[in-house]
Amino acid sequence: PRSNGAARHVTARVAPLGSRLVLALVEDRTRERRVEEVRRDFVANVSHELKTPVGAIRLLAEAAQGAADDPEAVKRFAGRMLTESDRLTHLVQQIIELSRLQADDPLDAPSPVRLDDVIKIAIDTSKIDAEAKRIQVVSGGLENLEIFGNEQQVTAAVSNLVANAVSYSDPDSTVLVTTKVDQGNVEISVVDQGIGIPSTELDRIFERFYRVDPARHRSTGGTGLGLSIVKHVAATHGGEIRVWSAEGQGSTFTLSLPVHRGSEQKQEERL
Ligand code: ADP
């Protein structure tokens, strides 16, 4: 009968489609589960990271209360409370920055980003820390380069790289920020002569909250979020971040961004 034939025909056509659909659903679920896992880890890490300085501030406040008749000790405790609360502020700023970056697509409204401006802001932002350590931060290479993307994000990425170079360098050294073009990509390199990174740690430093030997870096007050911000910005701009490092010699971080990808992608979407 006609209706049966039609039914078989439909079934035959639906079967492979159906299995593909199931596969897609499974893949989707796996991805969803992974996203959820990453989110849960992030929240757990954030809570842990926030608790550390808050706990320290509390202990210091208690210590100050207990030392009320020793003004020198109270002053010392207050100084350390200030340091810890600065650390907390920095941490909260970076967490907000990271979640804002993840929320918006930089290529929603790509605009020309002048790298000279970005580098100038990054160097200016690190000026106080650099001067305190007598570190010279100089820029060189090609001028007037532009990419298409999100200026705020690219500035955040380059600023984090320059800030790290200054943090992990010894006093009286030099940090160099260079720009060049290689195969349609703009490459911004931040070169330092600092403490370097052990090769075994190199592929972990881009993870959120990961810090190489936190005890060694305690005084830098870092959060372990800077490089994950850089990695995120590189990815959303269709670029990449590379690192070369040798312990005791220094590190070079290279942010490579396609010159035009942002505008081309938007054009393709419009077609
Ligand atoms: P942090 O806030 O700790 O600097 P990042 O995500 O920016 O966090 O960096 C992760 C870790 O990578 C740092 O804790 C540090 O150990 C290492 N690191 C980053 N940049 C440099 C650098 N220029 N020189 C040496 N070590 C670095």
Automatic annotation (TrEMBL):
Catalytic activity of the protein: ATP + protein L-histidine = ADP + protein N-phospho-L-histidine
Coiled-coil residues: none
Name of the protein this chain belongs to: Sensor-like histidine kinase SenX3
Residue span(s) of domain Histidine kinase: 45-261
Localization per record: Cell membrane
Keyword Phosphoprotein: yes
Keywords: ATP-binding, Kinase, Nucleotide-binding, Phosphoprotein, Transferase, Two-component regulatory system
Lineage, highest ranks first: Bacteria, Bacillati, Actinomycetota, Actinomycetes, Propionibacteriales
Keyword Phosphoprotein found: yes
GO molecular function: ATP binding
EC number of the protein: 2.7.13.3
Portion held of the full protein: 117 to 387 of 387
